[in-house]
Amino acid sequence: MSRRVYLDHNASTPVHPDVVAAMLPYFQERFGNPSSVHTFGREARDGMEVARGRMSDFLRVSKEEIVFTSGGTESDNLAVKGVALARGGGHIVTSQIEHHAVLRACQFLEGQGFEVTYLPVDGDGLVSPDDVRRAIRPDTILVTIMHANSEVGTIQPVEAIGPMVRERGIPFHVDAVQTFGKVPVDLARFGIDLLSFSSHKIYGPKGVAGLYIRKGTKMVAVQHGGEHERRRRAGTENVAGIVGFGRAVEIRGREMEAEAARLTGLRHRFWAGVSASVPEVRLNGHPTRRLPGTLNMCFRHVESESVVLGLDLKGVAVSAGSACTSGSVEPSYVLVAMGVPVDWAMGSVRASLGRGTTEADIDYVLEVLSPLVRRIRELSPASVA
Amino acid sequence: MNYSQILIDHFRRPRNAGMMRHPDGVGEESFDGCGDLARFYLRVVDGRVAEVRFQTYGCGPTIAASSAGTELASGRPVTELLTLGEAEITEAVDGLPAERAHAAQVVAGALRAAARDSLTRRGSPSQAKESEHV
Questions:
Q1: Which of A220, A260, A283, A324 is an active site residue?
Q2: May I ask the CATH architecture of the domain B5-128?
Q3: Rounded to whole angstroms, how far apart are CA atoms B56 and B104?
């Protein structure tokens, strides 16, 4: 079998072996329902509460402020709809480049009579804190801005937005699915009231995530059927997943800083290599305010999916910025919002590095990428003068 | 996305790729709502396709279908290409996922356009058709 290089860690990550080991007893030995009063139930609940403690330690909040959910999408929905529906009406401020979990939730709320302002971003993908300030109205009930965009990796100035939003007494939600466990998130300093974070982006299992809800934040549950999670999220908890998530967070607490520095170095090596060997390529996202391991590039006159397929045939996994679905292809809405011209945006490719990525991996990708792009361009009528 | 081995082979080693100088016919097709574009060049001798080349911008399946399309067209009477259908292109790459069906549409359309162009250049399509039977 030829070499395999996985550069799609923003999509999902392999589960850390220690996480798997921590989870295993919760499938067959400590399998009880954490709501049950008997020993089996208590064992499950104890495991879950240890994990909750690890979350609260990591975020420096109280355990009661952590709610477990089934994924980042549910966390975002609970945050946005939970706050909005508790108010019954009003105005929400968000950005044009949020994850669809936030955008679609906002669109749903518009259908219920809420008003939403979708703020633009600049060429680097940054939301302006001044734009947020200007967008806030007397009836604004929520500001929701992501911490980092999954596609381009730009880290938003939430440290400037949050305190300004709190001054006005408005809840501030941050989708931190792509930053949690990768870069520091200081909830108190950033003035964050609600924070979405996920497990499978940080070497934990899929199907489990969390939502931090600051004490005193007014919200309602959006899922009903039980008293779980302090009545904020009905449904039997994914105990094994939560235990694994807890272990993953504990590991990230130890490894995050060194890993961020290492990935930043690898990303620089990657981009230096690409920009030196491939003509007509551009880097997307902010040059410095970005996720350590995320590199998003546009290859002009190349359709991104052909690069993804070509690299896949060489054992390399990356993701396409534009996806051709049902005969309709549109450039990434994030790149469009950033003002990237369409003929560039159609050729956007994201490589997201992780703890298993090595220098040798990057060098291998560089070795196969340049001839691949050249070959695809040679096939294209657009590249012929 | 699951692609056939034949499709992958055409993507990996496209046949008859590149521009042709002084072709006897050129045809293009693009797909609405999708950036894919295929262009085919034909060299025609005695009413048959003596040489065919393509240039394509698009996803992997469209590139592969273009390559397969050149093999289908090669050696055939030009008039046959006027009625070339998507099904034949799809079959030539051993099937396409439903969401990539447009690859065959683009390629078949471009080959038909190239055939029409070559017949137009030679004279009226009806004259050209008669000559095929000589």
A1: A324
A2: Alpha-Beta Complex (3.90)
A3: 12
CATH of domain A17-251: 3.40.640.10
Predicted ipTM of the assembly: 0.84
Q: Which residue has the higher pLDDT, A154 or A231?
A: A154
Cβ pair B60:A309 closer than 8 A: yes
Burial A132-148 (b: 16+ CB within 10 A, else e): beebbeeebbbbbbbbb
Distance separating alpha carbons of residues A132 and A134, to the nearest angstrom: 5
Ranges of each domain in chain B: 5-128
Chain A contact for B102, CB < 8 A? yes
Torsion of CA A335, A339, A341, A344, to 10 degrees: -30
Query: How far apart are alpha carbons A178 and A156 in whole angstroms?
Result: 12
Q: Output phi, psi for A289, to 5 deg.
A: -80, 80
Say if CB A284 and CB A298 are below 8 A apart. yes
As given in the structure block, the two tokens for residue A138 are: 């007397």
Contacts of A319 in chain B (CB under 8 A): none
**C-alpha distance from residue A77 to each of A6, A210, B123 (Å):** 30, 12, 65
In B103-132, the residues whose Cβ lies within 8 Å of chain A are 105
Q: Is any Cβ of chain B less than 8 angstroms from the Cβ of A2?
A: no
Joined together, the tokens standing for residue A349 give: 């490719």
Instruction: Scan for tokens 């105990």, then name that residue.
Output: A239
Q: Which CATH code fits A5-12+256-383?
A: 3.90.1150.10
B100 has a chain A CB within 8 A of its CB? yes
Helices (H), chain A: 17-23, 25-28, 39-59, 72-87, 100-111, 129-135, 158-167, 187-190, 228-231, 239-277, 304-312, 333-337, 342-345, 359-379
Q: Which two structure tokens, joined as six digits, stand for B78?
A: 């030009």
Q: Could you identify the residue written with the tokens 């990591």? A: A58
A324 is annotated as an active-site residue: yes
The span from the CA of A281 to the CA of A19, in Å, is: 39
Residues 311-350, chain A, touching B (beta carbon < 8 A)? 313, 324-329, 346
Instruction: Kindly report the number of other CB atoms within 10 A of residue B92's CB atom.
Output: 21
Per-domain residue ranges of chain A: 5-12+256-383, 17-251
Tens digit of pLDDT for each residue in A224-269?
998 899 899 999 999 999 999 999 999 999 999 999 999 999 999 9
Please, which residues 46-65 of chain B have a Cβ atom closer than 8 Å to chain A?
54-60, 63
A378 vs B102: CB contact, 8 Å cut-off? no
pLDDT band at A270; cut points 50, 70, 90: very high
Helical pair A72-87 and A100-111, crossing angle rounded to 10 deg: 30
